[in-house]
Specification:
Blueprint lengths: L3 H9 L10 E7 L10 E2 L4 E2 L7 E2 L10 E11 L9 E15 L4 H8 L27 E10 L6 E15 L13 E8 L8 E6 L1 H5 L17 E4 L7 E4 L17 E3 L7 E3 L2
Antiparallel strand pairs: 1-4, 1-7, 2-3, 5-6, 6-9, 7-8, 8-9, 8-10, 11-12, 13-14
Length: 276
């Protein structure tokens, strides 16, 4: 008979919570673009449309993958008689994202070279794109969104990480060869604090698969249809009905908001019928 410890160990093994993405994209947008609050929408946890202004960096190198990092530094206070610090304070906490673009497009060129090509136009006769590298480089901030998908159908889980004010802090080497390799566009982005929103990073876990696994992941379950209410005859046989789960609006007014599923019938009568 397995011990209690063995039972607990087995109970903690949630293989469905091992996330291995089958698809991933990185999107970018100007800082003026609204911050994405949720990547999913609707009772089925479907992927939401991105706001206007977001673009896709295109195909990304599989071998280099997308690397997410976090570098923390702290300041310790040590006391006589203690071998460990008696107090620690975080002095730096920087999230990073590194990836290598396979496509040579305006967005990978801009991010890798640190230039703004919005005003550059092709030569009207040859179609050539030419521009000078600035003598003094400027730091360009923009929004970056990693969006990956795990599973499919009702098991789909979406994982996202959003840098609200990302800065390119490092670029990798590029290879020009007729052998193994290609002209790629590698760079590393660090997350800076968006002064309007007040944070640097926003994390996302969603999708229909995630919705079904909330309890297994340690979160309270939800009713996909939203917060409900209950109607019951009180006292029984009286023809009078009471509700539970209604919201007093505004608080203290004695007035209650009409819950979903109730329809005024006829319109304007003040009488309501229960929907299906």
């Amino acid at each position: 008979m397995p011990s209690k410890v063995a039972e607990l160990e087995i109970a903690r093994h949630q293989r469905e919570l091992i996330l291995k993405p089958q698809a991933a994209h990185i999107f970018g947008a100007p800082e003026t673009t609204p911050v994405i609050l949720n990547i999913t929408e609707g009772p089925d946890g479907e992927l939401a449309e991105l706001p206007d202004g977001y673009f896709d960096f295109g195909l990304l190198d599989k071998e280099d993958a997308i690397t997410l990092s976090r570098e923390m530094e702290k300041s310790d206070i040590n006391a006589i008689g203690y071998s460990n610090p008696v107090r620690s304070d975080v002095t730096s906490d920087v999230f990073g994202m590194a990836f290598k673009g396979l496509e040579t497009n305006r967005h990978t060129i801009e991010s890798n070279l640190g230039v703004d090509l919005s005003g550059v136009t092709p030569d009207p006769y040859t179609g050539e794109i030419s521009f000078d590298q600035p003598a003094v480089s400027e730091i360009r901030r923009m929004r970056y969104l990693l969006l990956s998908q795990v599973g499919s159908g009702v098991d789909t889980i979406y994982f996202g990480r959003q840098f609200l004010a990302g800065e390119v802090v490092d670029v990798g080497e590029q290879t020009v060869t007729d052998g193994e390799g290609y002209l790629g566009w590698p760079f590393t982005v660090n997350a800076m604090v968006d002064t309007t929103y007040g944070v640097s990073v926003r994390h996302h876990f969603g999708g229909p698969g995630w919705m079904r696994l909330l309890e297994e992941a340690g979160f309270p379950p939800i009713d996909p249809g939203g917060a409900g209410f209950e109607l019951f005859e009180s006292p029984p046989g009286s023809g009078l009905y009471a509700f539970t789960g209604l919201t007093e609006d505004p608080p203290g007014s004695g007035l209650y908001a009409i819950p979903p599923g109730m329809t005024e019938n006829p319109a304007g009568s003040g009488l309501y019928t229960m929907g299906a």
